[in-house]
Amino acid sequence: MENANILVVAKDRAIIDKLKNCFDDKGHQVIPAYDVSLGFFLAQKNFPHIILCQEELKEGDAFELLGELGADPELADIPFILISAAARADSTELSNQGIAMAITESMSEGYLISELMPLINEAIAGRKRRQEYSPE
Question: Which of 2-6, 29-33, 126-130 has the highest mean predicted lDDT (pLDDT)?
Fold first, then answer.
């Protein structure tokens, strides 16, 4: 099976480290970013399978990044997972905003793996090849 690129955009280094611990040993690459502009740049550069984003960032927030991703046709369909401090009850509202899933910062590594691996496997299986661009 193909390994996934997982973009993690978070201001909290502990969240990035927790997700690295979850997925690095499974062969997946965790790409860290700390703000909206770097997260968007790394999404364009690495074309991740999924994006996990903490709600509040150093500069901006998850919804600002989601808006930038949605404006790029190549990145708009990448599953976006919101990492929030508290549980979110209204999954319909989140889905309407383009968020595939919401998780809390306090989730255990085991729970993260059980929740995110099906989404990662689905993203790997459904991935379209990225169009090659010629400098001509």
Answer: 29-33
The answer to whether the beta carbons of residues 88 and 14 sit under 8 Å apart is: no
Residue 95 lies in a domain: yes
* Locus of tokens 């703000």: 35
> What does the pLDDT read at residue 120?
92
User: Does 132 have pLDDT greater than 70?
Assistant: no
Exposed/middle/buried for 39, CB within 10 Å: 0-12, 13-18, 19+?
A: buried
Neighbours of 101 (CB within 10 A): 18
- Rounded Cα–Cα distance for residues 31 and 54 (Å): 14
Q: What are phi and psi of 104, to 5 degrees?
A: -100, 155
Say which CATH number the domain at 27 has. 3.40.50.2300
